[in-house]
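The protein record quoted for completeness.
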Amino acid sequence: MNTPQARPLQAWIDGVGLLGPGLSDWPGAAAILRGEAAYRPARTEFPPPQGLPPAERRRATAAVKLALATGAQALAMARRDAADLRTVFAASSGDAANCHALCEALASDDRLISPTRFHNSVHNAASGYWGIATGSMAASAVLCAPHDASFNAGLLEALVQLSTSGEDVLLLACDTEYPEPLRSVRPIADGFGVALLLGRAAGPSSTARIAVDAAAAFTDEPAHTLAQPELEALRRGIPTARSLSLLQRLARGEPGRLVLEQQPGQNLAVDVQPC
């Protein structure tokens, strides 16, 4: 008896947002990734969070600012409204500076925790702020995966949601740096965020089709790297920046199989086909 084969998980990339060290938006980053502009390392600049009421704007953390900024870029590129758009949030460690502040408070004599610090400590804080800023009431998933694998886990979750729901999905992945002493054991170089708006069908803003073979998604093949040493160092220095090899394919319009770094012996294989 023939066993039915699983259909590949696929989506069309309709919008991209990017914010990281020396990378202020997707158009500028795409030119750098194509080799048309020089990469100049610089600290990540976090823009003021748009769409939030004044009180929430003051409380917004670096992770929230990354999610709102990159998400807005992807929506603008795709000319989409966030109100009815499913979201998937992925982060290796949430807001690292807030985690550090909580640890400091717990190590002090009075051990009092700020209510703002506490509500910003939950892993779905960025999702909550997104809902406030955009008015979205659509379904939202929030996840992390072991060590540096959260971008890949978020991508897979978004592809599965798109396949099962038939609705477009916005993936928002970000990481922020830890202060010392946590930085010495979890050295994340700076803040980095990426957003991908995944559509169920090709549209006017689609740049590429991405597909994952559900039966052979993971491989022990080595991950693809970047030829530019400074960009490769960035890719290796921040978990979410593992996405840079995919983003470079999108920027250059290069087709073919791509292996995204996840963890030793279990990298993620994807197929990229420009539109």
User: Anything to note?
Assistant: The mean pLDDT is 92. Strands lie at 9-19, 86-90, 140-143, 169-175, 192-199, 208-212, 218-219, 256-263, 266-274. The chain has one domain: 9-274. The longest helix spans residues 62-78.
